[in-house]
Amino acid sequence: MNRLKKEFEARFSAPPELLVRAPGRINLIGEHTDYNDGFVLPAAIDKAIWFAASRRSDGRFAFAALDLGKFFISENATPVLQQNHIWANYLLGVVSEARKDGLAFGGLNLVFTGDVPLGAGLSSSAAIESGMMFILNELYELGLSKMDIVKLAQRGENNFVGMKCGVMDMFASVMGRENQVVRLDCRSLEFEYFPFQSDAFSLVLCDSGVKHQLVDSEYNTRREECEAGVSILKKYDPGIASLRDVSPAFLKKHASELPGKIFQRCKYVVEEIHRVEQACAALQNGDFETLGKLMFETHRGLDLEYEVSVPETNFLVEEARKNGVLGSRMMGGGFGGCTINLLKTNDVEVFSEKMREAYRRHFGLDLKIYPVRLADGVSVQK
Ligand code: GLA
């Protein structure tokens, strides 16, 4: 924070008016269910983007990305999609969507840094978008609710950046709570917190180091495949608006009506929505074994049916299984990123060592391992 303040002062010749922390996220279970109106079970984590910000009277937007060593300033108050400063689009997108809603605000000076690893599936981009909207709301007293901030951040990514992501990442970054996961119904946006603070069990991420170049295009394709499934299934029940409305039995009955790949995608999603509910029940009963089994099942579906895993994340899940974890699966959009592992706290050290060793032996790569703590969502820092 001190470095951030100093950098801000050095660049803008005055101390920042506001300091904000916006965390990355994990997702315990419920992958690729958010844009199918299903359930997710994410949490904010102790890795975050940190911002220093002040208002600007000329309406322009000046951003310094410390970790990239990059600086951007807009020509005027109107956000324009950047080709040379792709990173700035995550911030400008939020401005663009907020303007569409007629929200009145001026310009901004912003410096940011963070320890959310990029491209690791921990949603650094959602943290940036959520943080940006939170800052505009604070500095210009826009009177937005937390859920308004979530939705505007998501719209920025959907409509400006062009990634048709669901609501989960921004929701987790804004609404997260220390030592809790939160089940979100992505249709109604109702949510409920579940404590996750057993000393006996830990969550550990293994970062495959594979960056998901494919993810945006493949992600949007998966969305379209789900929609294609819905439009066919609708013919047999007009009440079906999304895969949330499809039961496993109904899907089975109409399996032959769906092209093979579309059926596979739908089957995974329908089962995954159900798994989140089972996972919540397991959590409530303190039944970590069942929770772990469900995580393995999710991975199987993501790999074989949804086809978003890669050899590296498959390897990490299988090695984790051999090393006695309760559950392991790839996390996030796919095509690289992290696996999330549920294991006994006593086993974390030996597990980490064995995983590093195996990854080096098999791929010749250093495996980064992050133990995670569940943290509060976006907030003002003193
Ligand atoms: C990405 C998206 C989320 C969600 C996950 C998959 O992280 O941004 O909205 O769809 O993938 O669960």
Can you tell me about this structure?
There is one protein chain. By secondary structure, the protein is α+β, with helices and mostly antiparallel strands. Helix content is 42%, strand content 21%. The chain is built from 11 helices and 13 strands. The strands form 3 sheets. A 6-stranded mixed beta sheet has the order 5-4-6-3-1-13, with helices on both faces. A hairpin with a 7-residue loop joins strand 10 and strand 11. It is globular. The relative contact order is 0.17. The structure holds alpha-D-galactopyranose. The site of alpha-D-galactopyranose has 11 residues, from helix 5.
Give me the side-by-side strand order of the main sheet.
5-4-6-3-1-13
Instruction: Compute the separation of the termini in Å.
Output: 9 Å
Please estimate the helix content. 40-55%
Largest sheet: 6 strands, mixed
Low-confidence sequence ranges: none
Number-wise, the strands total 13
Tell me, briefly, the overall form: globular
- Portion of residues in beta strands equals 15-25%
The string of secondary-structure elements, in order, is: HEEEEEHEHHHEEEHHHHHEEHEE
Q: For the CA atoms, what is the radius of gyration?
A: 21 Å
